[in-house]
Design a protein that fits this description.
Blueprint (H helix, E strand, L loop, with lengths): L30 H11 L65 H11 L8 E3 L6 E3 L20 H26 L3 E3 L2 H23 L8 H26 L4 E3 L3
Antiparallel strand pairs: 1-2, 3-4
Helix pairs in contact: 4-5
């Protein structure tokens, strides 16, 4: 590091520092609009409170216990206040009160006859589950079936009735379609011999595929073996579906071929 220690006459007078240039201050073109909106839309006394507040007199200073809630004053014991109407006066000796009509009914005999002819109440069933003989109601214990007392007990649910109706309508629609097809001579019914022959043929084909499937290699290490195994399994599943479909429907209709 080098330090300039040489003296020079030109360094005796410091150079003049030029004044810094002041940037022009930005002024928004909406400033006047904002001032007007603030002036006319501002809520008065919103943040600083009311401009003029009423001051209490010096004699009306805040006293002790004036902010506490007090119960209503009770009337003095010497004065009685009657808020309800008074009862009627007591009749005198000269006034005869109106008595009820005398009845000749024998209440003892009537009560005795009523008790004799009354149907005795059935005792509620109870149970005991402690050595001391404490009893409890049997209905509230859960030991008796309560569902048998429901209004819908023993009745067919509505959804089953709806399902049965839909199945009946579908069967009628199918019968109507078959009848129309017979009238147009487009469908024929398979005979029992034809149905049996088709069923036997499907079973024979399944037996043949099953025999081939049993002869496959245990290890399917090549794509050809894997593809053959999958093909035989798919054909056997399709035959099983066809056999089940024919055995399930004893009456079968087929389209008539020209």
């Amino acid at each position: 590091m080098s330090v300039d220690t040489k003296e020079s006459i030109y360094k005796l007078i410091p150079p003049a520092i030029p004044p810094a240039e002041m940037r022009r201050r930005h002024k928004s073109k909406f400033s006047e609009t904002v001032k007007l909106e603030t002036k006319y839309l501002k809520a008065q006394n919103k943040t600083m409170g009311p401009a003029i507040v009423a001051v209490n007199k010096p004699s009306e200073f805040l006293k002790k216990h004036t902010k506490e809630s007090r119960p209503p004053l009770r009337p003095s014991p010497g004065k009685k206040q009657y808020d309800i109407e008074r009862k009627p006066r007591v009749p005198t000796l000269q006034e005869q009160p109106q008595l009820a009509e005398k009845s000749n009914k024998d209440f003892i005999k009537t009560n005795a006859i009523g008790n004799i002819t009354a149907i005795p109440k059935k005792p509620k069933p109870k149970y005991t589950d402690s050595p001391r003989g404490t009893t409890y109601l049997l209905e509230e214990s859960g030991l008796l079936p309560q569902y048998v007392h429901k209004k819908t007990y023993g009745k067919v649910p509505e959804y089953l009735e709806t399902r049965k109706k839909e199945m009946t309508e579908a069967q009628l629609e199918y019968e109507r379609y078959v009848r129309e097809s017979f009238e147009k001579d487009q469908m024929i019914q398979l005979s029992d011999e034809e149905r049996t022959a088709i069923l036997d043929g499907l079973k024979k084909n399944w037996d043949k595929l099953h025999h081939d499937y049993q002869g496959l290699s245990v290890v399917t290490d090549t794509p050809a073996k894997k593809a053959r195994k999958e093909r035989i399994e798919g054909e056997m599943k399709q035959l099983e579906k066809d056999i089940e479909q024919i055995e399930k429907h004893p009456i079968i209709y087929v389209e008539k071929r020209l």
